[in-house]
Design a protein that fits this description.
The protein is of the alpha+beta class. Helix content is 26%, strand content 14%. It has a two-stranded antiparallel sheet with strand order 1-4. Strands 2-3 form a two-stranded antiparallel ribbon. A hairpin with a 2-residue loop joins strand 2 and strand 3. The relative contact order is 0.19.
């Protein structure tokens, strides 16, 4: 019997890539994405940022970071030993 799928193939790829348990102290999706490169430059519009990351880290193929139709994800996570909770926010300027 085939195993049921809970998420799309893209979400499954993302979850597999960011499982930090017992692994390195930093994980990313795509794996070669750096924290510095993931930041938007001052004045860089969102579309230009997305195109830059796709070109630099996905060889120009946005489907490599697509988790569903019209949804793409770039992730960097720092993992601290013995930490049980991680947090993230989409707008570093927000409080």
């Amino acid at each position: 019997m085939a195993e049921s799928q809970l998420f799309s193939d893209g979400v499954d790829r993302l979850l597999k890539a960011i499982r930090p348990y017992g692994g390195p102290d930093r994980v990313a999706f795509p794996q070669n994405l750096t924290e510095t490169a993931a930041r938007r430059s001052p004045g860089e519009v969102l579309h230009a940022w997305f195109v830059r990351l796709v070109n630099d880290f996905c060889e120009g193929h946005p489907k490599r970071v697509a988790i569903d139709d019209n949804i793409a994800v770039f992730v960097t996570i720092g993992v601290m030993p013995f930490s049980y909770a991680l947090w993230a926010r989409s707008d570093p300027g927000s409080a």
